[in-house]
Design goal:
It is a single chain. This protein is an alpha/beta fold. It is 36% helix and 16% strand. The protein has 20 helices and 22 strands. The strands form six sheets. It has a seven-stranded mixed beta sheet, sandwiched between helices. The chain has a five-stranded parallel beta sheet with strand order 14-15-16-18-17, with helices on both faces. It has a four-stranded parallel beta sheet with strand order 10-9-12-13, with helices on one face. Residues 346-350 have low confidence and may be disordered. GO terms for molecular function: 4 iron, 4 sulfur cluster binding; indolepyruvate ferredoxin oxidoreductase activity; metal ion binding; thiamine pyrophosphate binding.
């Protein structure tokens, strides 16, 4: 058998296939997105794959398949778990028949998220078992283990890879699982119906299940301690890999420490209590909350032992937010083991790296849409409500067109609330096409039902662009052979929105005119700015600057903030390698010094 080099997310996908998964779905969200894509690329004909419209829907459709005895995998990022917490919590009580694994990818940092919440807290709250891999290799093994646990205990199981595990690579041996025979098909049973009286009885079962899992997890190989010293190091997730690297870097000997991986929720009590009685100090390294550290304090009390010195987040020895780094763990170990301070990689680096500011891509249609609205609203008091997606970057200067941003779909609903208490202001809500289908529709419905007065701008670039260009219900799921296309305007008309306009944002004058007209109307009215994402579309024009006409005013650079343009020697310079040929700069140049050729930018 030969090792295969694969990314963490690919490892999860292939492990699920090798474990006999039949039903895979999710909603794209970095760092989890590649799992569904990898399953689709490697699937056999008996595996069904879909991008669902949101995480709640994904978990519920997977639950239906799991009720019928099929192994199912659902993927999302940590904030996606918020969207499906209702079915997740109820499934903890109701249970499943076939194995159901929730891949919830946490994003410490955060690198690409609104929050850096810790999914382990939800596992404790919901009493759902959780596996916390420290590497792509463990992600592969734990995915298969998760299906076994799910079917043994008839419960969903959470797999919690973090960004560094999802996107790092490793050589992995694949192994197909010999499946036990499970009768397929849905059997009618009262247990599938969430009656209050049944929920009381199920709650008792859930508590017993959690206690039984503690005993089972004691037997997992992850809880085999390494070392014989009097300092216990407990590390979870990728921090376990960091701890091992720091130990090697500092040349610590096994008689100096005991290293234990905190790889599950619930944590096994017997293994940890037995180790606490052998050591003098404890170090807990984890991302993001002090989940394990608090549990250690609890175990000291439960076992009736005196608490030893614990180095962790609660003691401020480990930072309370953001990703941990190997260098930070090395410094921590130097303190704990009373080693002389030695320089590590970060302190040896004198080079200053310039961080590029986040901005919309060159040629992005959202820039044109924001600019049109900005021009139309000049001289008018307006509030601009943003949402989750590429267009959140509309907050950046010089556009500065996002005043609020909370969570998926909230651009519309926050706008409704703002308008109710600020009736003299013009409130405009921006939302993307994928986000509209995710949770934006309910906001529109609420606005109509409650007589809202809101202009909604749907930025339709025909993809879930921020997470890699996945399809939307409007573009058709690539995982369905005969996709049913659903146009945004059809949905809006069906909801009862009578004022709907569709326009290309690159038709600048028409866009400004339509925004001004809509601003004078009352009620719920919608403008759909439709233009495909430039990353997925060939450049339309070659854009050139005529230096004989340009007077160096810099209006094009200052107004748009396009990354393909900058001032050089007193005049704008267009970077041909970055320019996507949208022509927006040409449309705002007052002297017509910027021209677009008729052919494509080769």
């Amino acid at each position: 058998m030969q090792k295969e080099l694969m990314m963490g997310n690919q490892a999860i996908a292939l492990a699920a296939i090798d474990a006999g998964v039949t039903f895979v779905c999710g909603y794209p969200g970095t760092p989890s997105t590649e799992v569904v894509e990898a399953v689709y690329k490697n699937k056999t004909d008996d595996i069904y794959v879909e991008w669902s419209v949101n995480e709640k829907v994904a978990l519920e459709v997977a639950a239906g398949a799991a009720y019928s005895g099929y192994r199912c995998l659902v993927t999302m990022k940590q904030v996606g778990l918020n969207a499906c917490s209702d079915p997740a919590m109820n499934l903890s009580y109701i249970g499943v028949k076939g194995g159901l694994v929730l891949v919830v990818a946490d994003d410490p940092g955060p690198i690409s998220s609104q929050t850096e919440q810790d999914t382990r807290n939800f596992a404790i709250y919901s009493k759902l078992p959780l596996l916390d891999p420290s590497s792509p290799e463990e992600a592969y093994l734990m995915t298969q283990e998760a299906f076994n646990i799910s079917e043994k205990y008839s419960t969903p199981v959470i797999l919690r890879p973090t960004t560094r595990v999802c996107h790092s690579y490793a050589g992995i041996y694949r192994k197909k699982v010999n499946l036990t025979t499970m009768e397929k098909g849905f059997e009618k049973n009262n247990k599938w119906v969430c009656f209050p009286a049944l929920s009381y009885l199920n709650h008792i079962k859930v508590e017993k299940r959690f206690d039984d899992l503690k005993k089972d997890f004691d037997l997992l190989p992850y809880y085999k301690p390494h070392g014989t010293g009097n300092i216990l190091i407990i590390a979870s997730g990728v921090n376990y890999a960091y701890a091992r690297e720091a130990i090697d870097y500092l040349h610590l000997q096994e008689e100096q420490y005991i290293l234990l991986e905190a790889a599950t929720i619930p944590l096994p009590e017997h293994s940890i209590i037995s180790l606490l009685g052998k050591v003098e100090r404890v170090v807990v390294i984890e991302e993001l909350d002090a989940v394990v550290e608090r549990y250690i304090y609890y175990l000291y009390g439960k076992a009736g032992m005196s608490t030893h010195r614990i180095y962790g987040k609660l003691s401020k020895d480990v930072k309370v937010a953001g990703e941990n780094t190997i260098d930070e763990i090395i410094h921590l170990f130097q303190k704990v083991f009373k080693l002389p301070e030695i320089s590590v990689s970060e302190s040896d680096t004198s080079e200053i790296i310039e961080v590029k500011k986040a901005t919309l891509c060159a040629g992005c249609s959202h820039r044109a849409a924001f600019y049109a609205v900005k021009q139309a609203m000049k001289g008018r008091k307006a509030i601009f409500c943003g949402d989750i997606g590429c267009y959140t970057l509309g907050k950046a200067e010089p556009l500065n067109m996002v005043d609020t941003c909370l969570c998926m779909g909230a651009g519309i609903t926050i706008g409704l609330g703002l308008q109710k208490v600020n009736p003299k202001d013009t409130v405009i809500s921006f939302i993307g096409d994928s986000t509209f289908f995710h949770t934006g529709i309910q906001g529109v419905l609420n606005g109509i039902y409650n007589n809202g007065n809101l202009m909604i701008i749907i930025l339709d670039n025909s993809s879930t662009a921020m997470t890699g260009g996945q399809p939307t219900p409007e573009t058709g799921p690539i995982m369905c052979e005969l996709p049913q296309i659903i146009k945004i305007e059809q949905v809006l008309f069906g909801l009862g929105v009578s004022n709907v306009s569709v326009v290309s944002p690159f038709d600048l004058q028409a866009s400004i005119r339509i925004v001004k007209e809509m601003a004078e109307l009352d009620g719920i009215r919608v403008i759909v700015f439709r233009s495909p994402c430039k990353i997925k579309q060939n450049s339309k024009y070659k854009v050139l600057l005529d230096k004989r006409i340009c007077n160096g005013c810099g209006h094009c650079v200052k107004e748009l903030g396009c990354p393909a343009m900058r001032m050089s020697d007193g005049i704008p310079k267009i970077e041909e390698t970055e320019c996507n040929g949208c022509g927006l700069c040409a449309s705002i140049c007052k002297r017509k010094a910027i021209v677009c050729t008729g052919g494509k930018n080769e």
